[in-house]
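Q: Structure for this?
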Amino acid sequence: MQIIKYPARSEWPQLLQRPVFAQDEIEPRVQVILDAVKTQGDEALRTFAKKFDGIDLTSLEISQDVIAQAAHQLDSNLKEAIGKAYQNIRKFHESQKQPVEKIETTPGVTCWRKSVGIEKVGIYIPGGSAPLFSTVLMLAVPAALAGCEEIILCTPSDHPAILYTASLTGVTRIFRVGGAQAIAAMAYGTETIPKVYKIFGPGNQYVTNAKLLVAKEGVAIDMPAGPSEVAVWADESAVPAFIAADLLSQAEHGADSQVVLVTTSEQVVSEVMDALQEQLKQLPRQELAEKAIENSKVFLVEKEQDALDIINAYAPEHLILSISNAENIAEKIRNAGSVFIGNYTPESCGDYASGTNHTLPTNGYAKAYSGVSLDSFVKKITFQQITLDGLRELGPTVEAMAEAETLIAHKNAVSIRINTLNS
Amino acid sequence: MQIIKYPARSEWPQLLQRPVFAQDEIEPRVQVILDAVKTQGDEALRTFAKKFDGIDLTSLEISQDVIAQAAHQLDSNLKEAIGKAYQNIRKFHESQKQPVEKIETTPGVTCWRKSVGIEKVGIYIPGGSAPLFSTVLMLAVPAALAGCEEIILCTPSDHPAILYTASLTGVTRIFRVGGAQAIAAMAYGTETIPKVYKIFGPGNQYVTNAKLLVAKEGVAIDMPAGPSEVAVWADESAVPAFIAADLLSQAEHGADSQVVLVTTSEQVVSEVMDALQEQLKQLPRQELAEKAIENSKVFLVEKEQDALDIINAYAPEHLILSISNAENIAEKIRNAGSVFIGNYTPESCGDYASGTNHTLPTNGYAKAYSGVSLDSFVKKITFQQITLDGLRELGPTVEAMAEAETLIAHKNAVSIRINTLNS
């Protein structure tokens, strides 16, 4: 890791910069894929599957029989673990339900909001070396709780853990389609794959770019995405081996993973570095993790306030507070996706099973975006009901404002009612 | 209006289609503006003000003196109206605050969410014929309630009603910049205008396109936007003159406004059409409204269920229910931005002063998007804290799942803690 000692505040923006991925290069290629799926539907999906993945897709949809089989292919220990994680994630997201609360803002004028599940949502789960069934949990559990009627899943993988988790959580249909073409299929619809109103899920740069392009056309997406990140703030109360393990659990995601350690203690730096070297040797993904660690940064700062400020300026996706006053500091965190408090709260608990969602804002987006939650799967519709007396009370206010905005028909809609009442 | 009698369901998608505005044409022009502001800052803003608006901007910022003067330029009746609307909007949005609720998902595993205001937000208010001070209320009131520290406003207008409302609601700085260049300034920052994390507000096609382009670069925006819309569902219990007034209050927004009437009664159609012609003659914006009305549609359908289904398929920004069982039907509305219940609840009350927000999803986006609310100005950060016992309980679940996803360092972050505890 690059150890940066006592950087001046003026240097922070430069030091905290994330790598920039030029979209200009891949965007035209992604656009070609989107256009092909839009105009040729299923046919385009089959062509791309053959071209990019070397697969002859006879059927785009994974049958309910195959999905039902998946349960028998998993060992019972893993099924039990998925079941426990499912319960926790369900419990936490269920607590996010908001009851309808009617507010009388003026006598006779009642306003309220009601959460209604988005009817059709799509989940993308990438293929690759790891079957990300945990992400199926994180997206399908709140979708089902929200009352989404159609929850479809596109994935190039047919790993039984993905299929099992999808059926456990209420995914309605699964399609074996990957890449930017899967995003296009869900955004526009094809003969086989239904068009959805909102698309969720991680993916490579092509998938991410496709999501941004369809969002520009009005299809909602969960959030823009970049490589995963963790920042750890540690002091002498931290256990160096724990910190090293947390840093490595982020680093193993890929060479572009962002790993940051912030501390006021030089001793913590050297002890964590030692533990890191030792643990790194034993990792199966050592090479990947090593590259990420090489690009990673340690910030040694003077005061607690500096540590707090640098973290809020960085706005990490994950933040681990391994400091003695972690609970107090947690109150002062302004920009982060998810915060892990204390020595016995590793990020991996939130990644899998504690109950919180692991789909979180990367790349500094935590300054403006929340992670995925039940909110992400509902629209909140506002309602209002005004009585005769309420309109008499509120009407003159509306009339004065509409007139000042020179919108006379807006004023009339009130006046004609009040005049009828008065006549 | 085009009266469409008993359309077959298969024809609905075609009939409900909104006009499509080709972005391909304006996007390159908007991109040039964005790039210029990104690279040349204030200088570009001055050049565009001269070129597009014929204005020599000596100062980009409107001084606090000028803002303070605005209060003296408004008549007291309008100030009072703005004050009442302010109170109602504040009351309704304040009720949207969510207290922190700690959830123990597993013994010793506690998770919660906390809403934190987005530090820096930007509001755009267009110029043009009407000074949209009501939109300042709708955006600045929740921003201030959310605890946003910097609330900047860009507008080409210096109308005192806008300046007064901005100072009343807690806008921190006002810049006299309009168009796509204002969006660029807030997205990238210039020497004078601070960069913000999220941009809100309406605008023409250039402004809208600029928002979509900066969103692709990671700056959050309120939502994509199209022309304003209303759908009215009326039966014999409705007063035709009221319905006509509501349709016209939408139509006067512009020739591209979307106005829809849905009814099961042929009598309602003819009576509303008569009332419409009569009221149209008296409008100052008659020509504009006439064009919008020409492009608008009446759907005469057979059954209540048809009316409900066609409305949910259209997903209108505003929906007025002037039907005898409006309260029951309101429960069945799935896709709409804001719903107005009963004969004495005209849309214009929600546009100005009842308390609900008037920044709502148009163009069918109500299928996936909510209108602006307090939620739009906060991020919800998740927190978790796990005890020793909690980790012993949850740990094996995390270990099993991490191993199945071949993420061994994720597993280690748990194992190393449990092993230390056990040793």
